[in-house]
Amino acid sequence: MQVDIEMGSAAGGSPATLDLEELLATRLLVQGNSGSGKSHLLRRLLEQSAPWVQQCVIDPEGDFVTLADRFGHVVVDASRSETELAGIAARVRKHRVSAVLNLEGLEANVQMRAAAAFLNGLFEADRAVWYPMLVVVDEAQMFAPTAGGEVAEEARRISLSAMTNLMCRGRKRGLAGVIATQRLAKLAKNVAAEASNFLMGRTFLDIDMARAADLLGMDRRQAEKFRDLARGTFVALGPALARRPLTITIGTVETQARSTSPVLMPLPEAPADASDLIFAPGAAEAAPPQPQRVAAPVRPTQDILGELARARPAGVNAIEPSCAEAIDPGEREAALDGVIAEMVDDPDIAFRPDAMLYQDFLVRCRIARVPGSPPAMQTFRRRMAVARAGVDAETAEGDTWQTVLSLSTRLPEEMQSVFLTLARSALAGLACPGDATLARIYGTHSQRRARRLLTHLEEHGVIVLRTDLTGRRIAALPDIGCETAPGDPNAHDVLPEGHDAAAE
């Protein structure tokens, strides 16, 4: 079904329309300096398309929360944990509710992590709820920067990954990215390059004009026109907008942002006693407490030097340890294993990215009061891979399992959990796990990706796959001299108690 929404008027007064169905397949990039009318453009797009498609807005300044009153958007306050935000995003997709993620008032690092968690929750939703959704990200240069700047590298990496997934892989999941930025030069190129539709507003810096002209197929001389564009006027190009660069003026909107542009106002007449108004508190104001300065008694220098020279009394330690009892390594390892086992038994975490799992792990460690510093991310991934394999204590203590662990270290981290699961099935004589089970262990809903992973494991030489006469799959591990029992690759994924029958 083709739906054309009116964005405004083109030269000559003819209506400028946008093909909404084409936009869902080709994505949109909006660029313009501060004050060029980007937020007005996004609001016009959201208002006109609200009756036709589900929407999600990543709102760093809280400008779009007013859509809730007129169009029923649910405002999600981002001051929650990343796990909560991912769960809310999954339910937003499931129930097809339009939402605004309000990031107002949060620090840049927290904004990036919260937006990444929400976008990942939309991206990792179950295939059954991959309905079309317009995902609008305002100030996209904050969430997909070309360089780290003043934010933490880990936050930048997580946010950039989420934005890349939205723009590069979101289409097949029904997610249509609409990103707006003040500076094209500050926006990661692999994110901007995925958009096929462009609305370029007023721009003054040469580097931004050059990138805008390059995206629109214009030469440098034509790029000069971006300096002359009026507020609310944009140059449109793309399959959903126009086949040739077209100047359009954005139409009016029904809702308004909570924050408005500053407007000149006449100053009030200065009273004669202006100094008294400024420096003296008013009647309704509490007078600030005045600090009382007490002069310290002056001590003779000889007395101070004598105290420093005297020996410390017996029985007094120079430094008192903060923890009186030494940490028992065995108890600490058991506590860490307990936390990871609790995470593995939680079916809701199977498809979350490692960064979110690690944050959840740190929180659980604090709740469980695990002593000592938490393990690093790489160590956590390793322990999770072993735990997902579900090997019993007796097998884990054997020499054969130690050989399996040594073999797994030669593989990329994302392959280790699947390899360990195959090894554990082979050692226990269980059937070869099905594609759905391997996909869950790998952290994806795609069984095709699980099959590709098995091919990669074969290329690394750690497994050999074959099928019996009935078409059931067998995985042999030549380095430990054992193989799994035949298993149906199309078996349904079942998470049994204790992970003792994960094959079928």
From TrEMBL:
Pfam families: DUF87. Residues 485-504 are annotated as: Disordered. GO terms for molecular function: ATP binding. Residues 24-285 form the AAA+ ATPase domain. Keywords: ATP-binding, Nucleotide-binding. Residues 490-504 have a biased composition (Basic and acidic residues). InterPro entries: AAA+_ATPase, ATPase_Atu1862_pred, HerA-like, HerA_central, P-loop_NTPase. PANTHER family: HELICASE MJ1565-RELATED. This is ATP-binding protein.
